[in-house]
Amino acid sequence: MITPPRVRIERVGSAKTVTATLYGDLDLANRHDVEQALRESVPADVATLVLDLTHVGFLDSSAVQMLFELHRDMERARGQLVLAMSPDALARRSIELSDPSGLLLLYPSSESALASLRA
Amino acid sequence: MGKPFSARELFARVAANLGLGALRNREARRSAEYAERLRGLLERERAVAETLQRSMLPEHLDMGVFTRVGARYEPAQASMKVGGDFYDALALPDGRVLLVVGDVAGHGLESAVVMGTMRAALRAYVLRDPSPDRLLEELNAFAYTLDRPAMVTCQCLQIDAEGRGLTYTTAGHPPGLIRSADGRVQLLQEPGAPPLGTQLLPRFPLSRVPLEVGDTIVLYTDGLVERRGEAIDAGIERLVEAVGRERSDDAAGPAALAEELVLAQRPDRGYEDDVAVLVASLEAPGATLELELPATLDVLPGLRRTLQRWLAAQDVSAEEAYDIVFASHEAAANIVEHAYGLKDGQIELRCRADEDAVHVTFADRGRWRPPRGEGRGRGVGLMREVMDEVEIERFDGGSTVHLLRRRSRGSA
Q1: What is the phi/psi pair of residue B23, to 5°?
Q2: Rounded distance, CA B389 to CA B291, Å?
Q3: Does B350 touch chain A (CB under 8 A)?
Q4: What does the DSSP 8-state code read for residue B332?
Q5: Interatomic CA distance for residues B118 and B137, integer angstroms
Q6: Distances in Å between the alpha carbon of B29 and those of A34, B38, B86, B346?
Q7: Distance between CA A111 and CA B284 in Å, rounded?
Q8: Which of B97, B126, B297, B300 is best to mutate for the A interface (most A CBs within 10 A)?
Q9: Residue B131 C-alpha, separation from nearest chain A C-alpha, in angstroms
């Protein structure tokens, strides 16, 4: 039984910003489903995708790989990917290990990510 | 004075009486034969029902890594009371364990068949949604689809992946119980729903109870506690006392406790109804952990949770545990992706903790294919970053990955 990915997607403020909240563990077993859900439900003209990972307990290397691919594709479309993750979340370790140069933008929460985008 | 019999008359009467007597004898013999045959038939039906009943109960109970499960089924003493008691235990791939016990109303072959059908349906519904309330909703709807609607009492319980609690719901079934390590016994008696098959859309309220290592859960059917001419509460009371008293499970395991409870509760003249008892106990993880899992994606979440639970018991900090789980997951994911191709295969895992370090060893019997695609094979580099030692050996008949993480100073 593969844990179904749980993704909730909402538009906040302007239509140009979308927040997607993920729940559970992200790994090889569900990364393709999660990626597909994200790509299908985020409109092409979105400028900023805020990926709220505060409810994610574990990320494996393939899930981090997916984040890099989303990041690359958002940049190609002249948008940006922003991640929200609590500073003391253990799963942060997975991202820090794969991204020592800090390519992925990490904020402590989706609220703080949105606030800094408005500023 | 009556008219004296003539010799002929007397002869005729005697003959008639003799004939009648012979007829009576014949009839008596016939009805005795008939009764004998009926008894034989009933006995055969009982034997068939009992065989069917036993064959439809699980032979090997599935158990979680840290949950031991055992059961005992005893058919009723009275000849035709073999019926529809059932139980099951299922370890879900994510580490949760599902326990269920139920009783189909009625006796004989028909109940045994309905029991088998319900248990098969339960196993199918588990794949869809294993939460106890959803499962009983589905089973309730299913009970209505049978040719003759079945009435089934049931208690369904799910132990969470961390072993810190359970959720349960009940459909007209006597309350299961939990005994903690100190001998305290509590009943799982939050209000539930009526028996399955008696109400079209009942609500199955879900109740939560915390659990600890050393807790023992006992589920059973009413045959264990019901006595003629006595309220069921008295029987439950007796069971609570027996569960608090019998301590054999510590050494002999849950199956032994189930057997002892059946013995301890048995009335002098034997059980008048079927009895099923299912016992599960939460074990403390030891210093070693050995697992063999199918090499499929869906076992990975359960593998991580099992490791996490084992590491917590070895006094490894949450941060270190995340690293070890991360590296182990990558090693297991590599086996799933690259070791077996389209063939079925196994992941073997051995873990050991001592004062200085935690050792995790994975083995497979696959034929390794080179990683394909972007970013594949990066897992090994990450493993080396979070572990102190990573040794990978590939040989003809498979491979092993040995991971070692030294304990940080200051941690216990």
Answers
A1: -60, -45
A2: 21
A3: no
A4: H
A5: 13
A6: 78, 14, 41, 66
A7: 41
A8: B300
A9: 13
Fold classified for A6-94: Transcription Regulator spoIIAA (3.30.750)
Helix ranges, B290-397 (H): 300-313, 318-334, 378-386
Residue with tokens 């659990």: B211
Q: What are the residue ranges spanned by the domains of chain A?
A: 6-94
User: B358 has which bridge partners?
Assistant: B353, B405
pTM score, two decimals?
0.71
3-state secondary structure of B146: coil
Q: Which residue has the tokens 């994606």?
A: B297
Amino acid letter for position B39: R
- B298 CB neighbours in chain A (<8 A) are 1-2, 29
Tell me the per-residue pLDDT of B342-356, one tens digit each, with 9 for 90 and over.
788 999 999 999 999
Q: Does B129 touch chain A (CB under 8 A)?
A: no
Separation CA B235–CA B16 (nearest Å): 60
Q: What is the pLDDT of residues A11-25, one digit of tens each?
A: 766 678 889 999 889
Q: From the CA of A90, how many Å to the nearest CA of chain B?
A: 7
Residue B12 pLDDT level (bands cut at 50, 70, 90)? confident
ipTM of the prediction: 0.92
Give the DSSP letter of residue B212: -
Number of A–B residue contacts, CB under 8 Å? 62
Rounded CA separation B263/B361 (Å): 44
Sheet holding B83-91, edge to edge: B83-91, B97-107, B152-159, B165-171, B207-210
Closest-CA residue to B314 (of B359, B345, B253, B258): B359
CB contact under 8 A, A1 and B385: no
B193/B202 Cα distance (integer angstroms): 6
Give the residue among B209, B139, B221 at the shortest CA–CA distance from B175. Answer: B221
Where do the DSSP E strands lie in B31-176? 67-74, 83-91, 97-107, 152-159, 165-171
Cβ separation of A60 and B329 shorter than 8 Å?
yes
Q: How far apart are CA A26 and CA B366, in angstroms?
A: 26
- Rounded to whole angstroms, how far apart are CA atoms B296 and B346? 8
Backbone angles phi, psi at A22, to 5 degrees: -110, 145
Phi, psi of B150, deg, nearest 5: -100, 145
Rounded mean pLDDT, B252-269: 89
Give dist(CA B218, CA B71) in Å, integer: 10
The arithmetic mean of pLDDT across residues B364-383, rounded, is 73
